Amino acid sequence: MASSRSKDKSSSESPSPATARPPSNQRNARRTSANLSRDDDLDMSGESSHSGGHTNYTVMMPPTPDNQPGSKLDDKPDGPSPHGGSRFGTRPAPGGAKMDRRMSIMTSTNNNKSMLLRTQTGDFDHNRWLFETKGTYGVGNAYWTDDHYGPDLGLSMSDFMDKPWKPLSRKVKVPPGTLSPYRLLIVIRLVVLFFFLGWRLQNPNREAMWLWGVSVVCELWFAFSWLLDILPKFNPINRATDLAALKDKFEQPSPSNPSGRSDLPGVDVFVSTADPDKEPPLVTANTMLSILAAEYPIEKLAAYISDDGGAIFNFEAMAEAVRFAEIWVPFCRKHNIEPRNPDSYFSQKTDPTKNKKLHDFVRDRRWIKREYDEFKVRINGLPEVIRKRCDALNRREERKEKAIAREKNGGTLPQEGVTVQKATWMADGTHWPGTWWQSAPDHAKGDHAGIVQVMSRVPEPEPVMGGPDENRIDFTGVDIRIPMFVYVSREKRPGYDHNKKAGAMNAMVRASAILSNGPFILNLDCDHYFYNSLAIREGMCFMMDRGGDRICYVQFPQRFEGIDPSDRYANHNTVFFDGSMRALDGQQGPVYVGTGCMFRRYALYGFLPPRANEYLGVFGRIKSRAPSAPTHLEDSESHPLTSDHPDLNLPKGFGNSQMFNESIAVAEYQGRPLADHISIKNGRPPGALLAPRPPLDAPTVAEAVAVIACWYEDNSEWGDKIGWIYGSVTEDVVTGYRMHNRGWRSVYCVTKRDAFRGTAPINLTDRLHQVLRWATGSIEIFFSKNNPLLASRRLKFLQRIAYLNVGFYPFTSVILVIYCFLPAWCLFTGSFIVQSLNVAFLCYLLVITVTLMLLSLLEVKWSGIELEELWRNEQFWVIGGTSAHLAAVIQGLLKVIAGIEISFTLTSKSSGEDEEDIYADLYVVKWTSLFIVPLTIIVVNIIAAVIGVSRTLYSVIPQWGKLFGGLFFSFWVIAHMYPFIKGLLGRRGRVPTIVYVWSGILSTTLSLLWLSISPPSDSTSTGSITI
Asked: Where does UDP-alpha-D-glucose bind (predicted)?
């Protein structure tokens, strides 16, 4: 430790924290700079206390023989030096020795201990001095000779461990060598498209005006659609987190936290399921096990599952999962298991012993694998167990009713018999309050009571260490607690609109606010599990960083398992998740995609951000500070914020639960960043979240049941301004849009190890129906008040363009279908979209194609996707655009204009042939009406190619240029449809009968139509030869 005299001296000479600068006599001291994560990194102008882009801090450099100064500070040495006896100071040494190397002691802006400033290095051989002497060299040395640093210099290791304020995240910009050419090519291609379209308008094809006109309209539409898609990609960025800094800041002993307990805020994890037949409880149970084993303070984590069907199968499966979690979670902590989904972990093909050092790992893994197999057997056998239990108890009830009837009827049964309702029974011998297997009043789908069951109690605030057990795993020194786990099934009654998944999520928001009230909410689908146990900490680095109070949610990319290696139908969707979403992160933030998203609870309640900007002008280039809003519910009533946009009005209708209303201010305060730096705005003091969570009591649980009642949302703003937004199939996009429209920002968190993984449909029919639902939601957004054209001034211009593209892209399907038929009509008629393939047309086509290729290559470079993934995405864009998107447009227009609801369902099904093949579903052909248009396009283009080649070969004056032009574009269409053709052929290339039927009908129809339009001449028909 430094002496008190040196401390007083350094503190007296150090500047104030607000204006800390080195004195003039230290101008030669070496300084470095760190690019801190400021509000400006999130485009938060005007909020940093520093005028420059960097914050200076000192570099800790230990004393070595080459950096010792030759003078003494005030001639008061603290101890002898083995290298000439010197003191840190600025005066010349006795004897007139000139000082070329100096070290000074400064007090940091945070009043930390002294740190050394090094000047020049010289030619001193550090390695030789380190290994030929007993000196120590820096914090990274293998040992320390004693508690003091160096030979009695009055410095200890703690002096060098003092660190300046560190950001928890940082923005990693795309290298200018990639981004600048990318932007330049966008501008070049835009200019070339402008001149090309102008040339097309000025040079019509007089021989086929209708063909020319339709092609020009299609090209204008495609140019506009491309512009909407490419403009939001003008500023892509990457981000990085610092988990070590998060741990140092929130989980290390400090004056405000002497015990070193976690000061991180609470997190509530939501999982939703509805039907155990479509969403197997074993899959959901594995997801819940991965959540319970996440690396986050146990007392700050709570897991909730919403069973919207109220099925006893799900309930008892979750009870089994909690029982297995008591051994699975400590096993994961002991051996640092990844991933913590047991099914995924035991299915890995890699060596399980890699990087495992404990000698009992193999024995523990063998034991836990056996326990997991037994767990799976219990889950799979639950339906039979429940059925036998219900049959036995129903027979008992029937005997009781018969005995009562005999007593009332003189010892004989009445002639009409005794009828007993077949009930569903729980393991404790009571009626299941949810849905019964045989529907009954108050026990049917859409008609059952609300259920809240706390399956694992609130964990103890202090770690509970396990002990040795000969029959189980030795958990000595391992915390065996598991987070709180709650089963929720909201009340449903006939006559109420329950709003599907959005309503279930809002019910969980209210119930969790009563039980745990975590200021952050992470929602997952039942098949998306934690692949990275540190995922919550990764997201918390953004929420707790400087400017994090303005972030409404952190969106993680979706990663999928079980996809065929070729990714035939672009299920991975990497172009969107690694391209478009990264680009939106450079604007106002990525859109919410429904799963893998960490919300700020306060933002989900519909409140405005603490600070926001308004963007004025034609392209939103004029930025101004938006008026501030009250930060508490009570303040909003006394100081209302008047606005001309409904999204900027503060929410008021939260319902009649006083306990819930009181939890709002608590969640807002606990979600603030740590006020450990002068530039942190709207922060909370360190140590404010150290108090343990109070235990649950009966009135609290009863209140949680009350807030999930079906009538609770009556006369409230739930689903309109608060929580998940109702009225759209894609409630996720609308919910994120509303937050951005209020001025909040979002962040895209791409981790080195995937945060979450899930499953996706690999069957063509299932994939198209999934895309149909998304496109239908986009149409609903376009024709609703959530259209971004009606957004507030707090939405950035390019963010508005991105949301406009979300609602606009399905309409491109109409133009795409027409354009896919144009090559066939060119071949049928012998005409082309231009009068001749002249040099100007070919040059324009070449430049447009080359710029598109270069843009794709640069996008591949900054996004990390592969060219094959880009091609698969383009292929499925054509397949989906000619099928699901077109159906969505028709369905949306009929709903808006005529109020007609249309659903596209499967008409026939076939099963997979190989039960052992994990990709067997890829080859299953399930006929659907969505196949009609793409199949028609393929058949028509093939027939047109045959007709075009035949005509040209037998023509007196063959026009090869028009033929090649038509064949090229026809080949372009068929190449994009190739995955669709493979999907129809199945596993062994067998063509379904329906394909032959459609081909025959279309061939006959087109042949007759062509004969009626262009009948043969008389000379040709008679076969005579004129000389």
From this structure: 272, 278-279, 308, 500
pLDDT over threshold 70, residue 704: yes
Render pLDDT for 316-329 as a digit per residue (tens, 0 to 9). 999 999 999 999 99
Which one is catalytic: 364, 567, 732, 754? 732
For 906-929, the DSSP string reads BS-----S-TT-TTGGGG----BG
Inform me whether the pLDDT recorded for 260 exceeds 90.
no
- H or E segment and range at residue 156: strand 155-156
**Distance of alpha carbon 246 from its chain centroid, rounded?**
21
**Phi-psi domain of 86 (left: phi exceeds 0; alpha: psi -120 through 50; beta: other):** beta
91 or 354: which leads in pLDDT: 354
Radius of gyration of the chain (CA): 35
Cα-flanking dihedrals φ and ψ of residue 615, to 5°? -115, 115
Q: Which residue has the tokens 């699901």?
A: 884
676 is catalytic: no
CA–chain centroid gap for 79, Å, is 58
Residue 577 contacts residue 734 (beta carbons within 8 Å): no
- Known binding-site residue numbers: 272, 278-279, 308, 500-501, 525
Q: Are 874 and 976 in contact (CB under 8 A)?
A: yes
385-400: per-residue pLDDT in tens?
999 999 999 999 888 8
Task: Summarize the annotated binding site for UDP-alpha-D-glucose as residue ranges.
Answer: 272, 278-279, 308, 500
Alpha carbon 1021 to its chain centroid, in Å, reads: 67
- Note whether 118 and 26 are within 8 A (CB): no
* C-alpha closest to that of 882 among 820, 945, 804: 820
Instruction: Please report, rounded to a whole number, the percentage of residues in the chain having pLDDT higher than 90.
Output: 52
Instruction: Provide the b/e sequence for 833-846 (b: ≥16 CB within 10 Å).
Output: bbbeeeeebeebee
In 690-788, DSSP assigns E strands to 745-748, 756-759
Token pair 């008021």 is found at: 652
- The pair of three-digit structure tokens given for residue 237, joined into one six-digit string: 């960025």
- The active-site residue out of 268, 308, 545, 676 is 308
How many residues comprise the chain? Answer: 1027
How much helix, strand and coil, in percent to the nearest 5, is found in the chain?
45, 10, 45
The Cα–Cα gap between 841 and 388 comes to: 76
Higher pLDDT, 291 or 954: 291
Half-sphere exposure of 918 (CA within 13 A, CB side): 8
DSSP codes of every residue in 291-324? HHT-SS-GGGEEEEEEETT-BHHHHHHHHHHHHH
Q: Which two tokens stand for residue 487?
A: 């089963």
Return d(Cα 741, Cα 785) in angstroms, integer.
12
Helix, strand or coil, per DSSP, at residue 667: helix
Whether 152 is a known active-site residue: answer no
